[in-house]
Specification:
- By secondary structure, this protein is an alpha/beta fold.
- Helix content is 42%, strand content 15%.
- The chain has a seven-stranded mixed sheet with strand order 10-11-12-9-8-13-14, with helices on both faces. Strands 5-4-3-6-7-16 form a six-stranded mixed sheet, sandwiched between helices.
- Helix 14 links the parallel strand 13 and strand 14.
């Protein structure tokens, strides 16, 4: 059933006292085993698919009202991922959920070690504002596919989108399995104070830390999808026009309010003029009518976000070479794409993730200098981008800079491939999801063995009373002989290990 966006504009906060009751209902539903059936899970995923598919126009309009964001950009960056995610989960759920027999040594082969995938239980998903469709529904797909019940906390900063999805999800899905709550800090605290089986949080490090602390009090496992300052290395001038285009796309999509956007550029000294010339030309092509009325360019989500980013630009000590705040409009929260050259580590732009349409450029003399800069000031970024034709340099950066994900000669597209786990590392978060990885994130990998009774004769040595003879037998039967010497080269192939073992036998 399609719903008009105008029917769901008013975002009503969930009364705090109702949240424990909603939680209790979700826990009770899970305890009833209602969600264990794969057919039930598929049906919920199918309903979610048609919920989005049939209400495409209303969803695109709601996001536009919140962001002034081009409908096609929303479709590409949000709806398409959700629709494909539902289809993939429905089509592959049987194989995902099927118990997997593990490959093991001959010693344990008869016991058939197996992994089954059990739902975690009742989970809490906390959604940020920047991609209010994708970042709500992609985790929800994984949670439903794995057989959980879900409390979904939407963002209060996207009132049109959150109000619409509250109505849509409560209309299309089983409310005893998925229940949406809305609100600000009181509602978030009321939810995180409850005992969930799992919490999935996407947002900033400050709030993420608070969620982790609250979860620790009830020993609740968490996934934290955070952010950070993701660097982009530009180390040579080959294909500079395309490099500038791909960086501009990743940096200025959604007005820079993208957690995996290139947050700053590590540009090899001497390439400044060429890069800036190409960047200006590419921005003119991407946004030919750039102004507060440009239909293809998003605006800041809130007054607070607008004022924060404007202040960062106004206080920078770098050189504003493209854009700036002269055209900034507080009424519509518009800030044009901005590039700032020669930014120092202590600049206002380099303290935290910018989360706005600003690209600071840090000049470096070598890849090694860029690596040292990242590791010293902004280690463990959520994403890492390398623009280079030198495979050795690319490998060196990947080897020495730990990041959640990355791309070579491109930006942010890695987020769209469901075969790639998406998540952070260190300061940028913990845990990953998307596609099959979402199913595994929202499942407990439950290992078990089946020990046949006929193995008793071979395994009787484990029982007391113990003797020296038992120990000797156990060592021969259960303990592998070393496949490597005390010193020198360690064999790395199967053949090399076998030759060493055979040689060891003759040396005895």
């Amino acid at each position: 059933m399609a719903i008009n966006a105008q029917d769901a504009i008013s975002l009503k906060y969930t009364p705090v006292e109702e949240i424990p009751l909603i939680h209790e209902k979700l826990v009770s539903t899970f305890a009833s085993n209602k969600t264990l059936s794969l057919d039930f899970r598929r049906d919920q995923l199918r309903k979610l698919y048609y919920c989005v598919h049939d209400n495409e126009t209303a969803i695109l309009n709601a996001v536009y009202e919140d962001f002034h964001k081009a409908p096609l950009e929303t479709y590409i960056s949000e709806l398409s991922m959700v629709l494909n995610g539902c289809i993939e989960a429905i089509e592959n759920l049987a194989s995902w959920a099927k118990p997997k027999t593990l490959s093991t040594s001959l010693t344990w082969y008869a016991l058939k070690p197996t992994i089954r995938y059990d739902p975690l239980g009742t989970v809490l998903i906390i959604v940020p504002f920047n991609y209010p469709v994708q970042l709500a529904l992609m985790p929800l797909i994984g949670a439903l596919a794995a057989g959980n019940t879900v409390m979904l906390k939407l963002s209060e900063n996207t009132p049109h989108t959150s109000a619409l999805f509250t109505r849509l999800l409560h209309t299309h899905l089983d409310n005893s399995v998925v229940h949406v709550i809305n609100g600000d800090l009181p509602q978030s605290r009321a939810a995180t104070d409850l005992k969930f089986d799992f919490i999935f949080f996407t947002g900033g490090a400050r709030v993420g830390t608070q969620v982790a602390v609250a979860a620790a009090k009830t020993l609740t496992p968490v996934v934290l999808e955070l952010g950070g300052k993701s660097p982009a290395f530009v180390l040579d001038g080959k294909n500079m026009a395309l490099i500038a285009k791909r960086i501009a796309y990743g940096r200025y999509m959604n007005a820079g309010q993208t957690c995996v956007a290139p947050d700053y550029l590590l540009l090899k000294r001497g390439l400044e003029k060429e890069f800036l010339t190409e960047m200006k030309q590419q921005l003119d092509k991407l946004y030919p009518d750039m102004s507060k009325d440009c239909s293809d360019y998003a605006h800041m989500i809130s007054d607070a976000a607008f004022n924060r980013v404007k202040s960062l630009i106004d206080n920078t000590k770098g050189e504003i070479v493209i854009g700036g705040t002269e055209t900034a409009d507080s009424e519509t929260r518009f800030i044009e794409p901005t590039v700032i050259l020669d930014v120092e580590p202590d600049d206002s732009l380099m303290k935290d993730e910018i989360f706005g349409p600003v690209l600071p450029i840090v000049l470096i003399d070598s890849a090694e200098e860029g690596i040292e800069y990242v590791r010293k000031y902004h280690d463990h970024p959520l994403a890492l981008y390398i623009f280079s034709q030198d495979s050795k340099t690319i490998e060196k950066i990947h080897e020495q800079v730990s990041s959640g994900s990355g791309m070579v000669n491109g930006s942010i597209v890695q987020l769209a491939d469901p075969s790639i786990p998406f998540g952070g590392v260190g300061k940028s978060g913990m845990g990953a999801y998307h596609g099959h990885h979402s199913f595994e994130t929202f499942s407990h990998k439950h290992p078990y063995m089946i020990e046949p009774f006929w193995t008793e004769l071979a395994t009787a040595i484990r029982y007391p009373p113990y003797s020296a003879k038992q120990k000797k037998y156990y060592e021969r039967a259960m303990i592998k002989s070393a496949s490597f010497p005390r010193e020198g080269a360690i064999p790395t192939t199967f053949l090399g290990r076998m030759i060493f073992r055979i040689g060891s036998l003759f040396a005895r």
